Predict the 3D structure of the following.
Amino acid sequence: MNRSVDIVSSDGQSVAGEFSLWEESPEDPDLVRLELHFAGEVPTAVAGTFFDALTDIRRVLEGRGLRPRCFGASRDVYPSPMIRSMGSGEKAYRLKVGCPAKMQDIVPIFATDTEIKPVSVEEQEESYGKWLQSLK
């Protein structure tokens, strides 16, 4: 499966890219494989879920000031432990501080929207932590 994505630089420039997804990695059929094709490069990750593989690729891109513009790289999107265990991890919740996640909040992590402002992995994880705290 392939999914189109824009790769955004810190100065606002963007380049077209495409994710290639394998639900069974050639290296290990119990893992998924994700490749990002853009500008003649192909960062690749093998992980337990597509969200984890996307996180690994995002860390590589961050070292170069790049971020993919997709829900999986958005500040307010993160998978719950339950949704991670279902399927291959292609979906996550769009979270609202103080509100429990609901089924209608589920988004495909590789989908895009003009409102998405991609953040770093660290910023996304901090936002998830704040959301968890807001539920207590």
User: Anything to note?
Assistant: Residues 11 and 85 are 36 Å apart (CA to CA). The mean pLDDT is 93. The two ends are 39 Å apart (CA to CA). Residues 121-134 form the longest helix (14 residues).
